[in-house]
Amino acid sequence: MITEIQTNFYRISLPMPYRLRHVHTYALVQGADIALFDTGMNMPGAYEKLEEDLKSVGLGTQFIRDIYITHSHTDHCSMAGLLQERTKAKIHISAAANNVYQYFHQAEVLTKAARIFYAKHGMSPREVDAMVEEIDDIRGIIAPFNADDHLEQNEIREFGDWKFEVIFTPGHAAGHVCFFFREEGFLIAGDHVLPYISPSLSPNIFDEVFQPLKNYLDSLQIVENLPVTTIYPGHGNSFTNISERAGEIRTHHELRKQVVLQCLNAQPKTTYAISAEISGAATSRWDDWEKFMALNGTYVYLQELNREGVIKETMEGNVLVYKTI
Ligand SMILES: [Zn+2]
């Protein structure tokens, strides 16, 4: 579905195979030229859908000149390679997001790092194998692309008469950026702020010093300080009150963090064991992906509690364990 949000600015909803059924891409138009913000997911029918939607308003994929990427998750950029090949569009992405993307293509490097990381956090070898398989499946759908340049913090980009600022917002993903149109007051937010769900946070397995929650909350403050009137997210409807939404997301994280803390005592536990304990009976119905996501989510709060000095992290044999101080 394509919607003209305002003159020469469109929202296009593309399909996704997950619980979230759609992802948005946004198109700025100048004359016949198009700048696309995120590309949607490279799944059967998605390219045709994009083409059909653009045609319905007298445009077409052949007019895409530039592609701006908020972050390197598959639902936001896995069609970029295909579009680049067919349209010769230029791709703009932050250096950090591009790094994550390149790692994703180095199967051996990624698999090795993932095996070490998840085993260290308490997954069994069988569960680690299953998780690596899931990562391989995701890799299969990503069309490779070459970035034409890197987006810099706070730089102003222009597309015809349009002007927008690049705002670095690491947290949901390393190298995540938002695009802020100061004159119009709107923010293309990627997955930094979503209207209905709290954006997921996960570890950077290549950088264990990275603090996902701390970075995310700092980035939330950054966009809250901007004079934003309307937020255009990667999923869900646009919304207007960024402070209200940011407040809800902060509360959500604070409550989740407390749940993790309450699970800890003098008995040392792994991240994976804590994630299973929190989820209780639901754990028996988990598939491999849910186990992976639960571990990631728990890790984020343990990192933060450890940073705050409230809990203690130690290495016991080959695994990291956590307990109260
Ligand atoms: Zn997304």
> What percent of the residues sit in helical stretches (DSSP H or I)?
25-40%
CATH class of the domain at 2-107 and 139-250: Alpha Beta
- Oligomeric status: single chain
CATH homology-level superfamily of the domain at 2-107 and 139-250: Ribonuclease Z/Hydroxyacylglutathione hydrolase-like
Q: List each distinct ligand once.
A: zinc ion
Q: Could you describe the largest sheet, including whether it forms a barrel? A: 7 strands, mixed
Helix segment count?
A: 10
Order of strands across the main sheet: 1-2-3-4-5-6-7
Structural class: alpha/beta
Q: Keyphrases for this structure?
A:
325 residues, alpha/beta, Metallo-beta-lactamase, Chain A, binds zinc ion
What does this structure look like?
It is globular and about 65 Å long. With 325 residues, the protein is an alpha/beta fold. It has a domain at 2-107 and 139-250: Metallo-beta-lactamase, Chain A, CATH 3.60.15. The protein is built from 10 helices and 14 strands. Strand 4, helix 1 (46-56) and strand 5 (64-68) form a beta-alpha-beta unit. Helix content is 40%, strand content 23%. Bound molecules: zinc ion. The site of zinc ion has 7 residues, from helix 2.
Quick gist of this model?
Helices cover 40% and strands 23% of the residues. The site of zinc ion has 7 residues, from helix 2.
Produce the secondary structure layout.
Blueprint: E1 2-6, E2 9-15, E3 22-30, E4 33-37, H1 46-56, E5 64-68, H2 74-77, H3 80-87, E6 90-94, H4 95-105, H5 107-120, H6 125-141, E7 149-151, E8 156-159, E9 162-168, E10 177-181, E11 186-190, H7 212-224, E12 230-233, H8 242-263, H9 271-279, H10 288-307, E13 311-316, E14 319-324
Parallel strand pairs: 4-5, 5-6, 6-7, 11-12
Antiparallel strand pairs: 1-2, 2-3, 3-4, 8-9, 9-10, 10-11, 13-14
Helix pairs in contact: 5-6, 7-8, 8-10, 9-10
